[in-house]
Design a protein that fits this description.
Shape: elongated
Distance between the termini: 54 Å
Helix content: 55-70%
Radius of gyration: 20 Å
Protein name: DUF4235 domain-containing protein
Keywords: Membrane, Transmembrane, Transmembrane helix
Order of helices and strands: HH
Pfam families: DUF4235
Structural class: mainly alpha
Number of helices: 2
Number of strands: 0
Length: 111
């Protein structure tokens, strides 16, 4: 049996850490969003925005708010997990290689 490398083990640790952080953040935001929706509208948020009995405006508003806020919360939680991992190990996890966002290194646009 091949011996697992430290990088494989660290990768799994980061994957688990980021998954737990993202799920926890999504859960907290969903609960806060449900409570805020009830306070603002006086009714429960749509259980299924695709249901024809839900008005199109309400469905769009719910999908926009929930998708945006939950997505942002998950991203922030995952970034925080990456920061914690990097601080703990001294390096970013393998999944987070630099992605070339430096504009000075971008290829020139074709004309």
């Amino acid at each position: 049996m091949a011996k697992k490398s430290s990088a494989d083990s660290n990768s799994k640790v980061y994957s688990a850490l980021s998954l737990v952080a993202a799920l926890g953040a999504a859960s907290v935001v969903k609960k806060a969003l449900n409570t805020s929706w009830r306070a603002a509208t006086g009714k429960n948020p749509p259980a299924n925005p695709a249901d024809p009995d839900v008005s199109i405006g309400e469905a769009i508003m719910w999908a926009t708010l929930s998708g945006t806020l939950i997505g942002v919360a998950r991203m922030l939680a995952t970034r925080r997990a990456a920061h914690y991992y990097a601080r703990s190990t001294g390096h970013l996890p393998g999944q987070l290689k630099k992605d070339g966002q430096d504009a000075s290194r971008a290829p020139a646009p074709e004309s």
